[in-house]
Write a structure and sequence with these properties.
The protein has about 250 residues and is an all-alpha fold. It contains 11 helices and no strands. The structure holds protoporphyrin IX containing FE.
Length: about 250
């Protein structure tokens, strides 16, 4: 045991270790701040936060849970991509394979679906909660707009994912949905054509929805989530209210 701790001490003295872990243990306020500044994973957090904004009722962690769900969706989505081909009729067969052939395929697909439903629910709950607390007022108004974009991206992610199983439900949902889009004045028909890659829900539509769902929209979401967090810092942290005071 003593040899092991001696070895560990030696490793900590090496240049390689010091180049990765540049600061010692965070025991003082200064070293704690430096730890936050110097870590890729922590530096998006503010170095100081107001105590009131740490109360559960200040957020109910709704935004953070939305983020966790987005991470779960990304992970399970990548795993699902190993088994899925965006082609007609292979897409439907892949769904059946996930159900009957792939180990834990049903579990994987259900986790992805459930997390998707929950994310839509949680993002709405987060938005209503922020609104109730007046989180849209200056200086947070820009972040509110970023939030609205995130809400639209979340809904569009849900919508594009709906076509991918290529079953009857998917086919008709997208047919009805894109018909509604085509009712938009002036540009409706063009938007529908652009989205479907044609006039009918077919192979082109499946490929477009796949690319939107697996590449474009997740990248847009990651970008705006980063801006969202950066703005929270720049706006001086979360909105706090007098009622956030702890009731002793
Ligand atoms: C992918 C979706 C979203 C994620 C991951 C997310 C994440 C977060 C997180 C982690 C916070 C910190 C406080 C908390 O946990 O509640 C926050 C704050 C905030 N969010 Fe979101 N959010 C999302 C969508 C939205 C939407 C749809 C809106 C509104 C339209 C919105 C508006 C705001 C505002 C204004 C704040 C600052 C609140 C304050 O000052 O008290 N967010 N968000």
């Amino acid at each position: 045991m003593a040899e092991l701790s001696l070895l560990f001490e030696r490793v900590r003295e090496t240049k390689v270790w010091k180049s990765v872990f540049r600061r010692g243990p965070a025991r003082t306020n200064r070293t704690r701040s430096l730890a936050v500044f110097g870590s890729l994973f922590l530096h998006y957090l503010p170095v100081k936060v107001r105590e009131k904004s740490l109360r559960v009722r200040a957020t109910y962690y709704l935004g953070s849970i939305s983020l966790i769900l987005f991470a779960v969706l990304s992970l399970t989505g990548v795993l699902l991509m190993f088994y899925y081909h965006p082609a007609v009729p292979q897409a439907y067969r892949d769904m059946k394979d996930l159900q009957f052939v792939v180990s834990n395929g049903v579990f994987l697909r259900n986790v992805h679906r459930l997390a998707a439903h929950l994310m839509v629910l949680l993002v709405f709950a987060h938005m209503f909660h922020v609104f109730y607390r007046g989180g849209y007022k200056p200086p947070h108004e820009f972040n509110w707009v970023v939030g609205v974009i995130l809400l639209l991206v979340t809904l569009f992610l849900s919508y594009t994912g709906y076509l991918l199983p290529w079953d009857q439900l998917a086919f008709w949902a997208i047919t009805v949905g894109t018909n509604i889009i085509s009712a938009m004045p002036v540009i409706g028909g063009r938007v529908r054509f652009l989205l479907l890659g044609g006039n009918l829900v077919g192979e082109n539509a499946l490929l477009r929805f796949y690319v939107l769902h697996c590449v474009i929209l997740p990248l847009v979401a990651v970008w705006f989530i980063a801006v969202h967090f950066w703005r929270i810092q720049k706006d001086g942290g979360l909105t706090v209210r007098d009622t956030d005071e702890r009731k002793e």
